[in-house]
Write a structure and sequence with these properties.
Elements lengths: L5 H4 L53 H24 L1 H26 L4 H36 L1 H10 L1 H9 L2 H8 L2 H37 L1 H10 L3 H43 L4 H12 L5 H16 L1 H27 L7 H15 L1 H5 L1 H21 L2
Helix pairs in contact: 3-4, 3-8, 3-10, 4-8, 4-11, 10-11, 10-13, 10-16, 11-12, 12-13, 14-16
Protein backbone atom coordinates (compact mmCIF):
# COMPACT_ATOMS: atom_id res chain seq x y z
CA UNK A 1 0.00 0.00 0.00
CA UNK A 2 1.61 3.26 -1.08
CA UNK A 3 2.25 5.83 1.70
CA UNK A 4 0.66 9.23 1.39
CA UNK A 5 3.15 12.04 1.06
CA UNK A 6 1.78 15.12 2.76
CA UNK A 7 4.07 17.36 0.79
CA UNK A 8 2.21 16.60 -2.42
CA UNK A 9 -1.06 18.08 -1.25
CA UNK A 10 0.49 21.26 0.19
CA UNK A 11 2.76 23.16 -2.15
CA UNK A 12 4.12 25.16 0.77
CA UNK A 13 5.69 22.02 2.17
CA UNK A 14 7.58 21.14 -0.97
CA UNK A 15 11.30 21.14 -0.38
CA UNK A 16 13.16 24.02 -1.92
CA UNK A 17 16.66 25.32 -2.01
CA UNK A 18 18.18 25.99 1.38
CA UNK A 19 17.77 29.61 2.58
CA UNK A 20 20.84 31.72 2.87
CA UNK A 21 21.95 32.45 6.45
CA UNK A 22 21.55 36.05 7.55
CA UNK A 23 24.90 37.48 8.53
CA UNK A 24 25.07 38.86 12.12
CA UNK A 25 24.50 42.59 12.43
CA UNK A 26 27.50 44.69 13.19
CA UNK A 27 25.41 47.58 14.68
CA UNK A 28 25.52 47.94 18.49
CA UNK A 29 22.08 47.87 20.12
CA UNK A 30 20.92 51.03 21.90
CA UNK A 31 21.66 51.09 25.63
CA UNK A 32 18.83 49.94 27.81
CA UNK A 33 18.19 52.47 30.60
CA UNK A 34 18.59 50.98 34.04
CA UNK A 35 16.25 52.31 36.74
CA UNK A 36 17.95 54.14 39.56
CA UNK A 37 18.37 52.52 42.92
CA UNK A 38 15.26 52.86 45.07
CA UNK A 39 12.83 53.52 42.17
CA UNK A 40 9.97 51.30 41.11
CA UNK A 41 11.16 48.98 38.25
CA UNK A 42 7.65 48.85 36.79
CA UNK A 43 7.62 52.59 36.16
CA UNK A 44 9.13 53.81 32.87
CA UNK A 45 12.66 55.12 33.33
CA UNK A 46 13.31 58.82 33.17
CA UNK A 47 14.88 59.13 29.70
CA UNK A 48 15.13 62.46 27.90
CA UNK A 49 12.62 62.60 25.05
CA UNK A 50 14.82 64.71 22.80
CA UNK A 51 12.06 67.19 22.07
CA UNK A 52 13.90 69.98 23.87
CA UNK A 53 17.38 69.37 22.54
CA UNK A 54 20.35 67.43 23.77
CA UNK A 55 21.38 67.95 27.40
CA UNK A 56 24.70 69.65 27.74
CA UNK A 57 27.57 68.80 29.98
CA UNK A 58 27.24 69.68 33.67
CA UNK A 59 28.67 72.95 34.82
CA UNK A 60 32.24 72.93 35.94
CA UNK A 61 32.90 73.60 39.59
CA UNK A 62 34.87 76.79 39.19
CA UNK A 63 35.62 79.24 41.94
CA UNK A 64 32.99 81.75 40.74
CA UNK A 65 30.14 79.20 40.89
CA UNK A 66 31.21 77.94 44.33
CA UNK A 67 31.47 81.47 45.70
CA UNK A 68 28.13 82.52 44.22
CA UNK A 69 26.38 79.46 45.65
CA UNK A 70 27.99 80.06 49.04
CA UNK A 71 26.92 83.70 48.97
CA UNK A 72 23.33 82.72 48.24
CA UNK A 73 23.44 80.26 51.15
CA UNK A 74 24.75 82.94 53.53
CA UNK A 75 22.10 85.40 52.32
CA UNK A 76 19.35 82.83 52.81
CA UNK A 77 20.63 81.98 56.30
CA UNK A 78 20.74 85.67 57.27
CA UNK A 79 17.22 86.22 55.92
CA UNK A 80 16.00 83.25 57.95
CA UNK A 81 17.70 84.68 61.03
CA UNK A 82 16.00 88.06 60.54
CA UNK A 83 12.64 86.36 60.10
CA UNK A 84 13.05 84.34 63.29
CA UNK A 85 14.24 87.40 65.22
CA UNK A 86 11.33 89.55 64.06
CA UNK A 87 8.83 86.80 64.78
CA UNK A 88 10.45 85.88 68.09
CA UNK A 89 7.53 87.12 70.18
CA UNK A 90 4.99 85.12 68.19
CA UNK A 91 7.20 82.03 68.27
CA UNK A 92 7.42 82.27 72.07
CA UNK A 93 3.62 82.41 72.25
CA UNK A 94 3.39 79.36 69.98
CA UNK A 95 5.85 77.45 72.20
CA UNK A 96 3.84 78.36 75.32
CA UNK A 97 0.61 77.24 73.65
CA UNK A 98 2.17 73.94 72.53
CA UNK A 99 3.52 73.32 76.01
CA UNK A 100 0.13 74.01 77.58
CA UNK A 101 -1.61 71.81 75.00
CA UNK A 102 0.75 68.92 75.72
CA UNK A 103 0.18 69.38 79.43
CA UNK A 104 -3.60 69.61 79.14
CA UNK A 105 -4.01 66.76 76.65
CA UNK A 106 -4.03 64.07 79.41
CA UNK A 107 -7.11 65.76 80.88
CA UNK A 108 -8.80 65.60 77.47
CA UNK A 109 -7.87 61.91 77.17
CA UNK A 110 -9.27 61.22 80.64
CA UNK A 111 -12.56 62.94 79.81
CA UNK A 112 -12.83 60.95 76.58
CA UNK A 113 -12.36 57.74 78.55
CA UNK A 114 -15.32 58.80 80.67
CA UNK A 115 -17.48 58.91 77.54
CA UNK A 116 -17.36 62.57 76.47
CA UNK A 117 -16.86 63.35 72.77
CA UNK A 118 -13.62 64.98 71.73
CA UNK A 119 -15.17 68.40 71.17
CA UNK A 120 -16.92 68.47 74.54
CA UNK A 121 -13.76 67.27 76.31
CA UNK A 122 -11.70 70.08 74.75
CA UNK A 123 -14.44 72.61 75.57
CA UNK A 124 -14.58 71.45 79.22
CA UNK A 125 -10.80 71.74 79.65
CA UNK A 126 -10.68 75.14 77.94
CA UNK A 127 -13.58 76.43 80.07
CA UNK A 128 -11.78 75.29 83.23
CA UNK A 129 -8.61 77.13 82.18
CA UNK A 130 -10.60 80.30 81.41
CA UNK A 131 -12.34 80.17 84.79
CA UNK A 132 -9.02 79.75 86.60
CA UNK A 133 -7.55 82.65 84.64
CA UNK A 134 -10.51 84.89 85.42
CA UNK A 135 -10.30 83.89 89.09
CA UNK A 136 -6.64 84.88 89.20
CA UNK A 137 -7.33 88.25 87.57
CA UNK A 138 -10.25 88.88 89.92
CA UNK A 139 -8.00 88.08 92.88
CA UNK A 140 -5.06 90.25 91.83
CA UNK A 141 -6.54 93.33 90.15
CA UNK A 142 -8.84 94.63 92.93
CA UNK A 143 -6.08 94.76 95.58
CA UNK A 144 -3.81 96.65 93.18
CA UNK A 145 -6.54 99.13 92.30
CA UNK A 146 -7.57 99.57 95.94
CA UNK A 147 -4.04 100.13 97.19
CA UNK A 148 -3.31 102.59 94.37
CA UNK A 149 -6.50 104.53 95.15
CA UNK A 150 -5.65 104.68 98.84
CA UNK A 151 -2.17 105.97 98.05
CA UNK A 152 -3.54 108.69 95.74
CA UNK A 153 -6.06 109.76 98.40
CA UNK A 154 -3.29 110.03 100.99
CA UNK A 155 -1.04 112.23 98.83
CA UNK A 156 -2.55 115.61 100.00
CA UNK A 157 -2.23 114.67 103.67
CA UNK A 158 1.37 113.53 103.12
CA UNK A 159 2.21 116.81 101.43
CA UNK A 160 0.54 118.78 104.23
CA UNK A 161 2.60 116.93 106.83
CA UNK A 162 5.74 117.67 104.86
CA UNK A 163 4.89 121.37 104.70
CA UNK A 164 4.51 121.51 108.49
CA UNK A 165 8.10 120.44 108.92
CA UNK A 166 10.51 123.35 109.27
CA UNK A 167 13.40 121.29 107.92
CA UNK A 168 11.51 120.47 104.74
CA UNK A 169 10.55 124.12 104.28
CA UNK A 170 14.17 125.20 104.67
CA UNK A 171 15.29 122.64 102.09
CA UNK A 172 12.56 123.72 99.68
CA UNK A 173 13.58 127.38 100.01
CA UNK A 174 17.30 126.63 99.77
CA UNK A 175 17.07 124.53 96.58
CA UNK A 176 14.13 126.37 94.97
CA UNK A 177 12.05 123.22 94.78
CA UNK A 178 8.81 125.05 94.00
CA UNK A 179 10.35 126.99 91.09
CA UNK A 180 11.96 123.82 89.71
CA UNK A 181 8.66 121.98 89.87
CA UNK A 182 6.84 124.81 88.11
CA UNK A 183 9.54 124.99 85.45
CA UNK A 184 9.37 121.29 84.87
CA UNK A 185 5.60 121.44 84.33
CA UNK A 186 5.86 122.44 80.67
CA UNK A 187 4.61 120.93 77.44
CA UNK A 188 7.51 118.50 77.12
CA UNK A 189 6.98 117.14 80.61
CA UNK A 190 3.26 116.75 80.01
CA UNK A 191 3.97 115.00 76.72
CA UNK A 192 6.36 112.58 78.37
CA UNK A 193 3.82 111.92 81.12
CA UNK A 194 1.12 111.21 78.55
CA UNK A 195 3.57 109.01 76.73
CA UNK A 196 4.12 107.10 79.94
CA UNK A 197 0.38 106.73 80.43
CA UNK A 198 -0.04 105.55 76.83
CA UNK A 199 2.87 103.21 77.30
CA UNK A 200 1.23 101.73 80.35
CA UNK A 201 -2.02 101.30 78.46
CA UNK A 202 -0.12 99.69 75.60
CA UNK A 203 1.53 97.31 78.06
CA UNK A 204 -1.84 96.33 79.53
CA UNK A 205 -3.50 95.78 76.15
CA UNK A 206 -0.43 93.94 74.88
CA UNK A 207 -0.56 91.58 77.85
CA UNK A 208 -4.27 90.96 77.29
CA UNK A 209 -3.65 90.32 73.58
CA UNK A 210 -0.82 87.87 74.26
CA UNK A 211 -2.89 86.05 76.85
CA UNK A 212 -5.84 85.70 74.48
CA UNK A 213 -3.48 84.56 71.69
CA UNK A 214 -2.00 81.84 73.88
CA UNK A 215 -5.46 80.77 75.00
CA UNK A 216 -6.83 80.51 71.44
CA UNK A 217 -3.73 78.68 70.18
CA UNK A 218 -3.91 76.26 73.09
CA UNK A 219 -7.54 75.45 72.30
CA UNK A 220 -6.71 74.87 68.62
CA UNK A 221 -3.73 72.67 69.49
CA UNK A 222 -5.90 70.65 71.88
CA UNK A 223 -8.62 70.22 69.26
CA UNK A 224 -6.16 69.01 66.58
CA UNK A 225 -3.61 67.39 68.86
CA UNK A 226 -3.86 63.87 67.41
CA UNK A 227 -3.75 65.14 63.82
CA UNK A 228 -0.71 67.31 64.51
CA UNK A 229 1.07 64.41 66.19
CA UNK A 230 0.30 62.07 63.27
CA UNK A 231 1.50 64.72 60.81
CA UNK A 232 4.76 65.10 62.69
CA UNK A 233 5.38 61.35 62.72
CA UNK A 234 4.55 61.06 59.01
CA UNK A 235 7.49 63.37 58.22
CA UNK A 236 9.87 60.71 59.58
CA UNK A 237 11.09 57.97 57.16
CA UNK A 238 9.05 54.78 57.32
CA UNK A 239 12.00 52.68 58.48
CA UNK A 240 12.43 54.81 61.62
CA UNK A 241 8.85 55.91 62.18
CA UNK A 242 7.89 53.27 64.74
CA UNK A 243 10.87 53.95 67.00
CA UNK A 244 10.47 57.73 66.70
CA UNK A 245 6.77 57.39 67.53
CA UNK A 246 7.48 55.34 70.65
CA UNK A 247 10.11 57.80 71.90
CA UNK A 248 7.94 60.81 70.97
CA UNK A 249 4.91 59.44 72.79
CA UNK A 250 7.05 58.82 75.86
CA UNK A 251 8.33 62.42 75.76
CA UNK A 252 4.80 63.78 75.41
CA UNK A 253 3.68 61.60 78.32
CA UNK A 254 6.51 62.92 80.50
CA UNK A 255 5.70 66.53 79.65
CA UNK A 256 2.01 66.00 80.38
CA UNK A 257 2.76 64.22 83.66
CA UNK A 258 5.10 67.03 84.69
CA UNK A 259 2.44 69.64 83.96
CA UNK A 260 -0.19 67.75 85.95
CA UNK A 261 2.21 67.23 88.86
CA UNK A 262 3.40 70.85 88.87
CA UNK A 263 -0.17 72.17 88.78
CA UNK A 264 -1.18 69.85 91.62
CA UNK A 265 1.71 71.02 93.79
CA UNK A 266 0.98 74.67 92.96
CA UNK A 267 -2.72 74.32 93.80
CA UNK A 268 -1.84 72.64 97.09
CA UNK A 269 0.60 75.43 97.96
CA UNK A 270 -1.98 78.09 97.11
CA UNK A 271 -4.73 76.39 99.14
CA UNK A 272 -2.43 76.00 102.16
CA UNK A 273 -1.39 79.65 101.93
CA UNK A 274 -5.04 80.73 101.71
CA UNK A 275 -5.93 78.85 104.91
CA UNK A 276 -2.87 80.22 106.71
CA UNK A 277 -3.63 83.79 105.59
CA UNK A 278 -7.15 83.48 106.97
CA UNK A 279 -5.81 82.23 110.30
CA UNK A 280 -3.21 85.01 110.61
CA UNK A 281 -5.70 87.60 109.28
CA UNK A 282 -3.53 88.82 106.39
CA UNK A 283 -5.09 91.28 103.91
CA UNK A 284 -6.27 89.85 100.59
CA UNK A 285 -5.71 86.16 101.38
CA UNK A 286 -7.02 84.91 98.03
CA UNK A 287 -4.68 87.20 96.08
CA UNK A 288 -1.70 86.02 98.16
CA UNK A 289 -2.72 82.42 97.55
CA UNK A 290 -2.83 83.04 93.78
CA UNK A 291 0.63 84.66 93.91
CA UNK A 292 2.07 81.67 95.79
CA UNK A 293 0.44 79.20 93.37
CA UNK A 294 1.75 81.03 90.29
CA UNK A 295 5.28 81.47 91.61
CA UNK A 296 5.37 77.84 92.79
CA UNK A 297 5.21 76.79 89.12
CA UNK A 298 8.72 78.21 88.62
CA UNK A 299 11.26 75.46 89.36
CA UNK A 300 13.84 75.81 92.13
CA UNK A 301 13.25 79.49 93.00
CA UNK A 302 9.48 79.96 92.64
CA UNK A 303 8.46 78.72 96.10
CA UNK A 304 11.05 80.95 97.79
CA UNK A 305 9.90 83.96 95.76
CA UNK A 306 6.28 83.45 96.79
CA UNK A 307 7.29 83.00 100.44
CA UNK A 308 9.26 86.26 100.40
CA UNK A 309 6.31 88.19 98.93
CA UNK A 310 3.82 86.89 101.49
CA UNK A 311 6.29 87.42 104.34
CA UNK A 312 6.84 91.04 103.30
CA UNK A 313 3.08 91.59 103.32
CA UNK A 314 2.95 90.01 106.78
CA UNK A 315 5.71 92.25 108.13
CA UNK A 316 3.99 95.29 106.62
CA UNK A 317 0.78 94.28 108.43
CA UNK A 318 2.18 93.26 111.80
CA UNK A 319 5.52 92.08 113.18
CA UNK A 320 4.07 88.93 114.69
CA UNK A 321 2.25 88.13 111.43
CA UNK A 322 5.50 88.53 109.50
CA UNK A 323 7.37 86.20 111.86
CA UNK A 324 4.53 83.66 111.60
CA UNK A 325 4.69 83.84 107.78
CA UNK A 326 8.44 83.25 107.77
CA UNK A 327 8.16 80.24 110.10
CA UNK A 328 5.20 78.80 108.19
CA UNK A 329 6.91 78.95 104.78
CA UNK A 330 10.17 77.61 106.21
CA UNK A 331 8.36 74.52 107.48
CA UNK A 332 6.09 74.16 104.44
CA UNK A 333 8.96 74.32 101.94
CA UNK A 334 10.78 71.53 103.76
CA UNK A 335 7.64 69.39 103.64
CA UNK A 336 7.09 70.20 99.95
CA UNK A 337 10.70 69.61 98.92
CA UNK A 338 11.21 66.32 100.77
CA UNK A 339 7.74 64.76 100.93
CA UNK A 340 5.27 66.18 98.41
CA UNK A 341 7.46 66.93 95.40
CA UNK A 342 9.32 63.57 95.27
CA UNK A 343 6.11 61.53 95.57
CA UNK A 344 4.31 63.53 92.89
CA UNK A 345 7.21 63.75 90.42
CA UNK A 346 8.71 60.30 90.93
CA UNK A 347 6.42 58.68 88.38
CA UNK A 348 6.46 61.54 85.88
CA UNK A 349 10.00 62.82 85.33
CA UNK A 350 13.32 61.68 86.71
CA UNK A 351 15.76 64.55 86.40
CA UNK A 352 19.04 65.04 88.19
CA UNK A 353 18.99 67.93 90.67
CA UNK A 354 22.10 69.55 89.18
CA UNK A 355 20.68 69.24 85.66
CA UNK A 356 17.36 70.69 86.81
CA UNK A 357 19.08 73.69 88.44
CA UNK A 358 21.27 74.39 85.41
CA UNK A 359 18.28 74.01 83.07
CA UNK A 360 16.21 76.42 85.17
CA UNK A 361 19.00 79.03 85.16
CA UNK A 362 19.54 78.71 81.40
CA UNK A 363 15.79 78.84 80.79
CA UNK A 364 15.44 82.04 82.80
CA UNK A 365 18.39 83.58 80.95
CA UNK A 366 16.99 82.67 77.51
CA UNK A 367 13.20 82.95 77.80
CA UNK A 368 12.53 84.31 81.29
CA UNK A 369 9.73 82.68 83.26
CA UNK A 370 8.65 80.68 80.20
CA UNK A 371 12.12 79.16 79.94
CA UNK A 372 12.03 78.20 83.60
CA UNK A 373 8.67 76.47 83.13
CA UNK A 374 9.77 74.34 80.18
CA UNK A 375 13.29 73.67 81.47
CA UNK A 376 12.67 70.44 83.40
CA UNK A 377 10.49 68.74 80.73
CA UNK A 378 13.13 69.63 78.14
CA UNK A 379 15.86 68.07 80.26
CA UNK A 380 13.72 64.95 80.77
CA UNK A 381 13.24 64.64 76.99
CA UNK A 382 16.97 65.08 76.35
CA UNK A 383 17.80 62.45 78.96
CA UNK A 384 15.42 59.99 77.28
CA UNK A 385 16.97 60.64 73.84
CA UNK A 386 20.49 60.23 75.25
CA UNK A 387 19.61 57.00 77.03
CA UNK A 388 17.69 55.39 74.16
CA UNK A 389 19.44 56.74 71.05
CA UNK A 390 22.81 58.39 71.55
CA UNK A 391 24.45 56.16 74.17
CA UNK A 392 23.49 52.82 72.53
CA UNK A 393 24.81 54.09 69.21
CA UNK A 394 28.10 55.05 70.84
CA UNK A 395 28.39 51.56 72.36
CA UNK A 396 28.09 49.88 68.95
CA UNK A 397 30.95 51.88 67.39
Amino acid sequence: MPQHDPSGDNPDLTPGPPAAETPPSTETPPPVPVPALGTDPDEPPAVPSGRFGTPGRPLRRNSFLIGFTGGLGVLLAYTLYLGIRNAGGILVLVVIALFLAVGLNPAVVRLRRWGLPHGLAVAAVALTVVLLLCGGVWALVPPIVTQSGQFIDQIPSLLAELRRSSTVNDLMERYDVVERVQGAANADTVGRALGGVLGGAQLIFGTVFRTLTVLVLTIYFLAYFNKLRSLGYSLVPRSRRERVQLIGDEILAKVGAYMVGALSIAVLAGATTFVFALIVDLPYPFALAVVVAVTDLIPQIGATLGAVIVSLVGFATDLRAGIACAVFFLIYQQVENYLIYPKVMRRSVEVNEVAALLAALLGVALLGVVGALIAIPTVAALQLILREVVLPRQETR
